[in-house]
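Many introductory courses stop at the sequence. We go one step further.
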Amino acid sequence: MSGSDGGKEASQISISQFLTDYYSTPESWTVKQAATKILSALNTWLFSQGQQKYGTAKGMVTTFSALVLKSQTAHLFHIGDSRIYRLRDTDFVQLTRDHRVWISNDRDYLSRALGIDTHLEIDYRATTVHENDIYLLTTDGIHDFVSDKEIQEIIETHKTNPQQATEQLVKAAEANESNDNISAHILRVDCLPEPDKTEFYEQLTQLPFPPDLKAGNIIDGYKILRELNASSRSQVYLAEDTLSEKINNLPRKVVIKTPSVNFEDDPSYIDLFLHEEWVAKRLQSPHLIKVCGMDRKRSFLYTVVEYVQGQSLKQWMSDNPKPSLIQVRGSIDQIARGLRAMHRLEMIHQDLKPDNILLDEFNTLKIIDFGSTKIAGLAEIKSVVEHNEIVGTANYSAPEYFKGETGTNRSDIYSLGVIAYEMLTGKLPYGEISPERASKKKFNYVSARQYNPMIPEWIDACLQKAVHPNPEKRYGLLSEFLSDFRKPNQALLDRHSSQPLLERNPVAFWRGIAFAQLIIIILLLAL
C-alpha cells in the first residue's frame, strides 16, 4: 500500500511468512482453515508492529491476494485492491473484487488491507481448475493503467511463455506512465492430478492380507497371544513385541488389527483400513488410542496400536447400570477431550459409541477405531475411491447421516449426547434404530427423567439439545455442551420448560391422557 510507511516491508513479510506457515499447518486442515488462521495471525502481528515502529495504523499495511491449488480446485484469498484473473479459452475474468471506496472520480481509499486493523475480513472463493487455465495476479500499478482487453491480448500472444507475458505487461504499464507498484505473476495449468485407478489399487494392495492368526504365531516379530475380538470386517489380537526393548523384564504388549479376507478385493475397505493408521499417527491426546511406530518392514497388511489393559465403556456400563451423575460427567468430559483434539485438526470421528471407548486400569477413557474418521483436508482431494455408505453405528449416528448429508462436529456431539443419555438411563433417547429404516424414522425425544427420575430437569434439557435431530439446533461446540452438563443453563431450562408436554415428554403426555380416559370410564360406569 503506497500510503503505508512500511508497506514494502509488510508485503515482503506477508508473502514469505504465508508460504512458510502454510506448509507447517496440519495436513488434516482444509485450505480455507489453514490460510484463514495464518492471515489472521499475520494481520495481528503487522498491526502491532506498525503501531510500535511508526505509531500509526498505516505503519505496516499491504494488500494480499493468494491462489492455492489443491487437487482440482483453486482456492482464492483476497484482501485489498490487488487482483486475480483467470483466462480460460477466450474468457478472461476478474475473480476478485477491489476493496476500494470512491470519494470522487479521481479519489478513492482502501476499505480493506492486511495490517490496517485488528479485525480482518478475507474474501474466499473456491473454483474448479481446468487444464490450460491461465491465472494472473497483479497489483494496481498494472491493472489501473492497462485495460483488461490489452492484458488479455498480451497473455494470449505469449501463452507458451508466461515469463515473457509478464515482462510485456510491465512494459505496457510503464508505457502508460504507471506511478504505482508494478507486479505481475502468471501461472499456466498444464495438467491436473487425475488419480490413476490401476496405480491406486496397486498401491493399496502392495501388502497381502495376513492369514488367520493363532496363539503362538509370529508375524514380523509380533507373537500372537490371543484373539481379543473378531467381526466380519476385522480381527483384533493381543501380541508381544519380541523385537523391542522389554518393559520390567517383560516383552511390550501391543494390539494387532488385521483386515478380513472377505474384503481382499474391495478398494474402498482397504482405503479405510489404511486411513485409520494415517489418522492415529497425527493425533496427540491421552484420550485417544496411540498407534505404534513401525520400526520394521511389514510382510502383511495390519495395524499396531498400544495395548490398553481394561474394558470397553460398553462393558463398564453393563457392570455399573446406575452410575452417579458425577461419574457420568467425568466420563463425558474425558471423551470430549479426545474429540476436541480431533476437531481441532478438522477431523470428525463419525463412529463414536461405547464399544469404541476403552477404560484403562487408571480409569482413563480412550477413544479407538478411526476407520470412519472424516478428514476435511483429505476430503478436498479428488479420489477414485468413494465411501457413500453410512460408516457409523445406527443407534449412535446422527440423523443427518441417514439423509445422505455430510457430518460435522455437531454429529460427534450428537453421539456423545446419546452416550451420556445411555449412561444415565440405560436406554437410548430414540430407542433401537434399524439401519434399514433409519431414514424414515421419526426422532421423538423421550425424556431421560422418564427412565431415571433422579436426573435434574436441567440435565434433561441439556441432553435433549445435544441429541436434537436437527444439527442446527444442537450444540455447536463441545465446550457449550460440557458447560450446560456441569451447571444449569437457566435460559435453556426456561425454553425446555415452556415446551408443550407432548414435545417435552410424549410418553408422559399420552400416559396422562390414558389416565384421564380411565377416570372418565369409571365415572360413567358408576353413573
